[in-house]
Amino acid sequence: EDEAKDLEHLDIKGDEIGNKGVSLGAALAHDKMDEEVDIPEDSEDSCLSFRTLWAFTGPGWLMSMAYLDPGNLEADLQQGAYCGYQILWVLLWSTVIGWMLQVMAATLGVVTGEDLATHCRNHFSRWVSIILWIMTELAIIGSDIQEVVGSAIAFKLLFGLPLWAGTLITGLDTFTFLGFHYFGIRKLEAFFCTLIFIMCVCFFINWGIAGMNGAEFAFGVVVPTIEDYAVLQAVATLGAVIMPHNIYLHSALVLSRKINREDQSKVREAIKYNAIESAIALVVSFLINAAIVVTFARGFFNKECSSQFDDNYACVDSRSDISGNTIDAGKTPGSCVSRFDGHGICAQIGMGSAGAALEKFLGNAAKYIWGLGLLASGQASTMTGTYAGQFVMQGFLNIQVPAWIRTFITRSVALGPAILVALATSGNPGLADQIGEWLNILQSVQLPFALLPVLLLTNSSTVMGAFVNKKYVKAIGWFSAVLVFGVNVYLVISFCWGSGNPVPQTTWFKAMVIVLLVFYFLFIAFVIYDGMTAKNRKASATHALRAFSAVNDQ
Q1: What is the full DSSP assignment across 294-346?
Q2: Which residues, listed in sequence order, are joined to residue 37 by a DSSP beta bridge?
C-alpha cells in the first residue's frame, strides 16, 4: 500500500515523463497565461529565421532580469570599486555558466511541457521535494528583499522618499504591474524589454561620461588574472550572478509558446531558438553589468585601498554621504587622498552609498540617472521574482488558486522582511550593504538546489527521451556543480572567519557553521542519490501496484 501511495505521489499515469508531455494549456492554466504564441511555419532548409526568432523572443528577456537585479548591480559596483577591470572575465564566465543552466531549464520545459518545479514534485521523493521547495522559497525571499530595498533606495534618490515608504510602494505596485499579465504574454514581455532598455540608456550614459581604458577592459574580459585581494570578490561575483529561482522561472516561461511535441523537428527548433534568444538577452545583461563595473572602476578603484587592509575598500570623496566603514584619514594612502581635490578617503561602498559617491564623481545628474536605472532594475526584477514564486508554489505544492491570491501570498512573505530591513537601515547605508552581502551568500548557498535538479532531470533519458544531454554537456554541468560547491565553501568560510565581517568571532559560532556545512553537503549528496535512483523507485512502485491490483482481483 505504501508503494502504491508513493506511485500516486509520483503521478505516473502510464506514459513515461517526457515521452509526450502535457498540453500547453494545462501546463499554464495555473497562471492564467491563456495566450499561446503561435510559431510560424518555415522551410526546413532555413538555418535561421528572424520571423521565428521573433516569435520565441520574450522568455529569455524576462529571465535575464535576474542577472540585472539590485543584488547583481551591487556586486558589479563593488567589483569595479574594489578590483578595477581585473575580474571582468569572472563576470563573463559566470554569465556563460548561467546561460548553460538556463538553456537546460528551457529545454526541460520545451521537451516535456512541464516546468522544473513540477518535475521536482514528480521525480524526487516527497520529503526531498518539500525541502527543495523550502530552499527555493528562501532564495526568492532573499532576492526579493534586495529588489524591494533596491527600489526603495531608487525612490529615495529620485524623490527623497524614506526607505520604508519606497518599500511599501514597491510591494504594492507589483499588483499594478502584474495587470499587464492579463493583456497577454506578449504585452508583458514588451513591458519588461522596455525596462531593460531604460537600464541600458541610464547605465550606458554614466559609462560614457566616466570613460574607459579600452585595453584594460579587453584584458580584464579575456585574460584570467587575479590578485590575492580580489579573490573573495571574484568568488562573490559567481555567487551573485546566477539566481536559483530563475532556473525554475525560465522552465515555466518557455511554455507560453505553442509547440507540437509530437514532432521532434519542431521540438529541436524550439530548443535552438530559445537558446539563441537567451544568449542575446544575456549578452545585453553582461554589457549592462560591465558598464557598471567600468563606471565604478574609473571613479573609485584604488589598488592601495583594496589591498592594504583586512577588507576591500574603494577611494571615495570624503564629502559625499558615505556612512559605511571607512579608514581614518591619517591611514588612507596618499594616492587616494590626492583624489577628489584632496578629499579622497578609503571607504566601503554599496547600494546605499553608490548614488552619493557618483554625485561627487560625475555630477548631480549622474545620481538621478543611476537612480532611474536602479528603479527599473528593482521594479522589473521584483515582478519576475513574483512570477517565479507563483510557478514554484504551483509546481512543488500543486496548489490550484487564482493568480492574484498567489501574488498576494508571495508579496506578503517577502514584503515583511523587506520592510524590517528598510526600517533597520534607514539611517545606516553601511548596514544595508552588509545585509546585501549576506543575501548574496544566501543566493549562492541555495544555487545547488536548482542546479542539481535541472542537471539530474536533463541528464535522464527517462525524462528527456531523445533530447537527453550530450556527454560533453553532462561533463560541463557536473564541473559547474563542483565549482559552485567549492565557491559556497569558500564564501561561507571567508565570510564567517573574516575578522572585519559582522559575525560573532567565537568558537561556538564557527563550530555551528561547520556542523551546518556538513548537513548541507549531506543533503546535497542525498539529492543526487535520490534523483539518480528515481527511475528504479518508480519501477518498484509500478511493480508493487500491479501486484496489489492482482491480489485484489483474486
Answers
A1: HHHHHHH--HHHHHSSSS--EEEETTS---S-B--TTTS-HHHHTSTTTTEEE
A2: 257
DSSP annotation of 37 reads: B
Contacts for 480 with CB less than 8 Å, ≥ 6 apart? 97, 100, 101, 451
Phi/psi region, residue 473 (left: phi>0; alpha: psi -120 to 50; beta: rest), is: alpha
**131-137, Cβ contacts within 8 angstroms, sequence gap of 24 or more:** 131/523, 132/396, 132/449, 132/453, 132/527, 133/392, 133/396, 133/397, 135/244, 135/446, 135/449, 136/244, 136/245, 136/248, 136/392, 136/396, 136/446, 136/449, 136/450, 137/389, 137/392, 137/393, 137/413
Residue carrying C-alpha cell 506514459: 15
Which residue, chain included where needed, has cell 536533463? Answer: 458
Quick one: CA dihedral 252, 258, 262, 267, positive or negative? Answer: negative
The pTM score is: 0.87
Here the cell at position 314 is 574603494
Report the SS3 class of residue 447: coil
Model confidence pLDDT, tens digit, residues 387-440? 888 889 889 988 766 666 766 776 677 667 777 777 777 666 667 767 777 777
Average pLDDT over residues 530-535: 83
Is the separation of the CB atoms in 328 and 369 below 8 Å? Answer: no
CA 179/CA 190 separation, integer angstroms: 13
Let me know: does 186 contact 35? Beta carbons within 8 Å.
yes
Kindly state the cell numbers that stand for 463. Answer: 525524462
Please, is 544 exposed, middle or buried when counting C-beta atoms within 10 Å of its C-beta (0-12, 13-18, 19+)?
middle
List of residues 6+ apart from 110 with CB closer than 8 A? 254, 257, 259, 267, 270, 271, 274
Using CA atoms, how far residue 248 sits from 30, 374, 392, in Å, is: 15, 25, 7
